[in-house]
Amino acid sequence: MAKILITGGAGFIGSFVAKALVEAGEEVVLLDNFDDFLYPATFKQARIEHLFKKEKRPQVVTGDILDGKLLGDVFTDGQFNAVLHFAALANPGRSMTEAGPYTLVNVNGTVNVLEAVSQHEVPHLIVAGSSSVYDDTQTPFKEDSYPLRPHSPYGASKAAMETYVQLWHEMHGIPTTIFRFFSVYGPWGRPDMAPMIFTDSVMNEKKLELSTDRQRDFTYIDDIVSGLMLGLERTLEFEIINLGRGEPHPIEDFVQSIEKAAGKKAIVTSREAPAGEMRVTYADISKAKKLFGYAPKVSVDEGAAKLVDWYKQYGSLVAR
Ligand SMILES: NC(=O)c1ccc[n+]([C@@H]2O[C@H](COP(=O)([O-])OP(=O)(O)OC[C@H]3O[C@@H](n4cnc5c(N)ncnc54)[C@H](O)[C@@H]3O)[C@@H](O)[C@H]2O)c1
Asked: Which domains are present in the chain?
């Protein structure tokens, strides 16, 4: 049995990987500060309560990756076989007006985690990267594309973080994989992200403002979890790997899938795309396929239907 730490483990992606790991018999520790920055801490708590049966709940440590002393204690107690570093401030749009906290958490916080990982000689590190680092004029996005060209402070913080992660690997030799995620959605997904906002608007017949001419590589949470589980099985020296579905969808099509599942029509108005919003995200997933046999399975229609089903039961928790 391996012992695995997930930073940001109460978050959307972290908690679903934790569930898969607990079900596979691993010992999991979640570290999260349960902030209210993007969405309420109560939603994160509810997510954990619903995903895990009481007797099979991972250990949860409430704490901040900016607190070096706490990190030191968690790592000393933990003796981890692997660390999944997912704690971050996400949401490119929000970062356009609040760059400071993004740099602090995503860059300084990551350096704190890297220090703890190297000091405690953790043998395997996985880090959450993002499609937001790419230049959206060069599609599909390939891992070796150069230069990276983030459009938002969030994307820039993720690109900067990657540079530190690579440097730490070179200085300390810790086998490390950075997975760049693409628009992850599903039940218990982030209330601040487009799929949940679309679902909430359609279900409650609220006006929905859509930017024109935008495409996203929407990736269902189970496919991301499968990719991460494959990534945990193989310890690679240093790799950066896209985890997306590999199919960009016009956002109007995604809304249509939600409409179909909900049996309701969206009330759409168009808007100019806000500053910092990428025109398209599109993962080239051939590297993940080749290295791990990664094969995303859930179509946007299926995924949207699962999201709508979930919303019917838990939508009242998505406070907007
Ligand atoms: N969801 C996506 O589509 C997507 C896409 C690309 C990249 N990512 C990256 O994947 C990771 C997970 O994203 P998510 O969608 O699950 O987001 P999330 O916000 O649900 O999860 C992040 C978690 O980190 C925690 N956190 C934030 N600051 C912290 C700090 N200082 N100390 C400890 N915990 C802290 C939050 O409380 C939250 O629970 C992030 O690194 C994000 O940048 C996500």
From this structure: 3-185+220-247+280-297 (3.40.50.720)
